[in-house]
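HUMAN:
Just now I want nothing more than another pair of eyes on a protein record. I would be glad if you read both lines and explained how they fit together. I have put the entry right below:
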Amino acid sequence: MESITAVELAGFSELLTNEENIIRKYKHYAQTCDDPALKKMCEDIAQRHTEHYDVILNELR
């Protein structure tokens, strides 16, 4: 893999931070939701963004 620039690294860092925030929010929504269908949807969204986070992180390795 080629070396990445400081600007690219900052972009990846921002992407990871955004994914972390989305994961945290949707996990919280799922925990506080009473509607089972809405709870599952929030859990699914959190899982999808966890996968996005993992993909981005693996690209940096």
Remarks:
- The longest helix spans residues 6-32.
- The two ends are 9 Å apart (CA to CA).
- The chain has a mean pLDDT of 95.
- The helical segments are 6-32, 36-60.
